[in-house]
Design brief:
There is one protein chain. The chain is mainly beta. It is 8% helix and 37% strand. Strands 1, 2, 3, 4, 7, 8, 9, 10 and 11 form a nine-stranded antiparallel β-sheet that branches. The longest helix has 13 residues. The radius of gyration is 39 Å and the shape is elongated.
């Protein structure tokens, strides 16, 4: 049997007068209403309640007289006990008809000045609830307050247990404390040719376009893989920038008692073709109160390119303005006419990119597969300076820096032929065991010196081509991976 105690509460209407009665009492006089508890003995319920005594009640009342003096009001009268019987202090109501919609008796948990930890000890159930059938007067209860009358209106309450709150027909708000966390970001943009950013928001910066400028960027915030916010430092007012020399503050919600997984995506405003767009350059992941590495100044400093790299918490490789896709066709092979292994005709490239339509010197990045000559291939285009964005079979994050070192240091091997260079590339990329002694020396030297190599402006970076639509997690190539070297 559930631990329930039925208490009959009768509301006693008492009018308190002064020494002289009003000659013409009106309907607007306040009438005092007191709730009194009287135990009733029912064989179906336990006769005692082990909950602590109540210090006050929560009574919610709606006036239904037309026109009402008020719509709804909540009263919290104190509770006191006389000979084991509970009474409330009086509440004052105008003459009229009312509906009692809430009646709960509360214990203050020995903290009378703090209601956040108070305990509900008795409550009146609702008509449609499981416990509504245990009483003859479930809520909502309609009652009338009349002048100069004593009205006893019974209202029943049951011993309350938190695990059975739903059986009373009501619930309550759960108050969740949340943590607001903040991280600060500031970035630099290094430009090889600043004049290419004419017409961009960067041109409005103090002093105009420069090789090194504050980066315009945004942070996209994901909480448990759901995008929750996007914050940008592009605060151009039309006459001034209000963010210059100020880091961008990024705030986010960390819920207590929950392990939140956060992902911050860094997008930087760069030239894409002939337009300027925000492109994804980096992703940070962390949990709860963890923070992104921010050095001693507590600001996450980043730099895109080869300037101020000794002052940055995150150094991003130089950006190459590349088309997302291009058509690639081999027109000459082993040797090409331009001193490389093949000649590649590029087409369907819009204006404004580092790559353009025409014939380019190209190399093979995979000895184990073939590619057809004089056949058009629709290709996705990737910079090897950002290997994380390349499909897995061609990612080779530890290999492409060595290939890039070789492409930038061919002057160390003045007698190398086209075939020596291609064999050295295959040795680096595919573990090819053949080639001349010079090819072996070239590959070994690149392996030693090319670890984590990043080309400087004026150098070369490999740009690779894989079939359009290749998934990022693809493990196997369908045709030979080809590349062209481009000045980053």
């Amino acid at each position: 049997m559930k631990k329930l105690l039925l208490l009959i509460l009768s509301t006693t209407l008492i009018f308190s007068s002064c020494a002289k009665w009003d000659d013409n009492p009106g309907q607007n006089q306040d009438q005092e209403v007191v709730f009194k508890s009287i135990e009733a003995s029912l064989t179906t319920l336990k006769s005692t309640c082990d909950n602590p005594q109540a210090q006050y009640a929560i009574v919610r009342i709606t006036q239904i007289t037309s026109p009402p003096t008020y719509d709804t009001a909540t009263f919290t009268p104190q509770v006191f006990y006389l000979s084991g019987t509970a009474y409330t202090q009086s509440i004052k109501l105008k003459v009229g008809t009312y509906k009692v919609t809430d009646f709960k008796m509360m214990n203050d948990n020995n903290t009378p000045l703090n209601t956040e930890d108070d305990i509900m000890v008795l409550a009146a159930p609702y008509t449609s609830s499981t416990y509504g059938s245990y009483t003859n007067t479930p809520l909502p209860l309609t009652t009338t307050v009349s002048a100069f009358q004593k009205n006893e209106i019974p209202i029943s309450v049951l011993c309350f247990e938190e695990t059975n709150y739903d059986k009373f027909g009501f619930g309550w708000f759960r108050i969740n404390q949340i943590n607001i966390r903040e991280q600060l970001f500031f970035g630099d943009l290094c430009l090889k040719h600043p004049e290419e950013y004419t017409g961009s928001p960067y041109a409005n910066m103090p002093g105009g376009l420069k090789i090194d400028m504050p980066a315009l960027f945004k942070i996209r915030i994901f909480t448990d893989n759901v995008l929750t916010d996007s914050v940008t430092n592009n605060k151009w007012t039309g006459t001034t920038w209000d963010y210059i020399n100020k880091p961008l503050s990024v705030t986010y919600v960390d819920q207590p008692n929950v392990v939140n997984q956060f992902k911050f995506e860094l997008y930087i405003l760069v030239k894409v073709g002939s337009t300027f767009q925000y492109k994804l350059f980096n992703t940070w992941t962390f949990a709860d109160g963890e923070r992104i590495s921010a050095g001693t100044d507590n600001v996450v400093d980043f730099v895109l390119g080869n300037c101020n790299i000794n002052q940055a918490d995150l150094v991003l490789a130089p950006y190459i303005n590349l088309p997302a896709i291009a058509t690639y066709k081999i027109t000459a092979w082993s040797p090409g006419t331009m001193g490389t292994y093949v000649d590649a005709l590029l087409s369907n490239i819009p204006a404004g990119y580092e790559l353009s339509n025409g014939t380019w010197p190209s190399w093979c990045g995979d000895k184990n597969l073939t590619i057809q000559i004089n056949q058009n291939y629709n290709m996705d285009v990737y910079s090897t300076l950002y290997p994380a964005l390349i499909p897995e079979f061609a990612r080779k994050a530890t290999i492409w820096p060595k290939v890039n070192w070789l492409m930038n240091n061919l002057n160390y091997f003045p007698t190398a032929s086209m075939q020596d260079i291609q064999d050295a590339i295959w040795r680096l990329v595919n573990g090819f065991t053949g080639g001349s002694s010079l090819a072996i020396t070239m590959a070994n030297t690149a392996s030693t010196n090319g670890v984590n190599y990043v080309p400087l402006p004026g150098g070369w970076a490999a740009v690779i081509f894989v079939p359009t639509g290749t998934p990022i997690n693809a493990q196997n190539a369908t045709i030979q991976t080809m590349f062209i070297r481009v000045d980053p």
